[in-house]
Amino acid sequence: MESVGLRGAGVVVLGAAALVASCCTLCSGDTLIPVVTGGLKDTSPRDGLADAIESGAFIASVTGGEYRAIAEFDVTDVPSGLVLSANVTGTIGPNNSVDVGLREHLIEFYTADGVLGLDDFSVPGIYVGDVAHASGDRTDFDFDITGILHNLLAAGATHVGMRVSPQTELLPFDVLYTNELFSDAPRINFELLPEGAGTLQVLPSLDAEFELVEGVWEVDETSNTINPRWIDFADIDRRGALEFSLADLPDNVTITDAKIEFDIWSLGGGAGDTTDAPIYGYAGDGAMTVADVLDTSTQIGVLGPVEELDPIRVELDHEFINTLLQNGEEFLGLAILGDPDYNSVGFATTDFAASSSSAVAPQLFLTYVPNEAPAGLPGDFNDDGVVDAADYTVWRDHQGAADEAALSGNGDGLSGVGQGDYAVWRDNYGATSDAGPATTAPAPAAATLLVAAMVAAGARQLSRSSSSL
Fold first, then answer.
1. Is 249:200 a contact under the CB 8 Å cutoff?
2. Distance (Å, rounded) from C-alpha 357 to C-alpha 270?
3. CA nearest to 412, candidates 459, 366, 379, 448
4. How confident is the model over 361-379, as pLDDT tens digits?
5. Cis amide leading into 172 (omega within 30)
6. Which end of the chain, N or C, is surrounded by fewer C-beta atoms within 10 Å?
7. Whose CA is closest to 146, among 81, 195, 205, 90?
8. CA–CA distance from 309 to each of 3, 91, 223, 270 (Å)?
9. Among 218, 206, 178, which residue's Cα sits nearest to residue 89?
10. Tens digit of pLDDT for each residue in 247-305?
11. Quick one: pLDDT at residue 194?
12. Burial degree of 429 (CB within 10 A; 0-12, 13-18, 19+)
């Protein structure tokens, strides 16, 4: 197998705590253009600090110094936690005709102040991606920065900066196109959540790599990367497992979109190959066990196609997560197996990101909407105008059903009969069509005894009536 490469870039990653958004009054997207553009120059002898501000957004590593292009955006009016998606676009092209082969550059984002200053040259940044083009060509880039923008806004940023640095020594000048009159100038394009929606961004509670060694599964929870790989003829089977807590989701919501972002650090395979590693979902329990990577009953996504050493965002089946919520599960588990075509892929772990200035932890992004209140009397599952023990019996007899048809539309509004519907009955026990809750609901066992007592009382009454004849 041909190795494609390993990635390493000197950047600092901001903390990515869970972000929970409340209801949104904005539901549109927008485009931002830079409020300031230019360049910074570290002159000889180079020491990693800028010595001069340049009017042009030049990118170069030459004998006379290193040049980095800068563009800063005002994000004051972008509501924190309510960004559904965001990407940055732009163009980098040559400023001369000198042929030095491939010209490579690194793009980072950082917390800015809307003013081009010398500190923007080396202020810690978040890795966005790499670009490359031949000396006579140019690069039109388009990177997903949803997670990055979430993190910067959550940290209180009013401005964000984009920095483009050369990665090739003795590279003649390139330039970041910065003329706002043209569509290829830098732009941040973002879309806000629909009205009433919210989002959760969360890191794994646990992540680990499992490997089958001579018939025994071994677990490694300390590695910098997780490297799923499967080669049957070589007896190689490595799998990754991640678990995400769902505890920060508000009650009574439905997931409408789910994505996970991986920071790809290694990639291997044949020339021109891409890697596609299947992702399976399971109900986690907050612990790493072999059973987690053996549960391959439900595939909910694919890590791929992976073609380069950059962060990648993967779509997950959000209905699977809704099912977990309906069943009262507290963790989403993901088992990642090796590519069936024997290609390999490796991504940064949570511990690596916490200790390194060059890695981003896996991040789960969930978008949700609150469930609408039932139209009828909540908890009145037999639709007789009162919430009582008979409704508990209806719930008990249909628990686990795929839909709520048996509950007369008075459940929690989620698909399927589950614990959420029991909670609706419990909280409204004693209510009638003309009044609110009248008393405290009995526990399930007590409710069963209550029904039994009612049946027994009816039987005794029937016996007395019969004996009097």
1. yes
2. 30
3. 379
4. 999 999 998 887 656 889 8
5. no
6. C
7. 81
8. 12, 20, 18, 16
9. 178
10. 999 888 999 999 999 999 998 875 556 789 999 999 999 999 999 999 999 999 999 88
11. 77
12. buried
Average pLDDT over residues 405-430: 87
Q: Which structural domains are found in the chain, ordered by start?
A: 28-192 (2.60.120.260), 199-370 (2.60.120), 389-467 (no CATH)
pLDDT band at residue 108 using 50, 70 and 90 as cut-offs: very high
pLDDT in tens, 26-81: 334 689 999 999 999 999 788 899 999 998 999 999 988 999 999 999 999 998 87
pLDDT at res. 436: 45
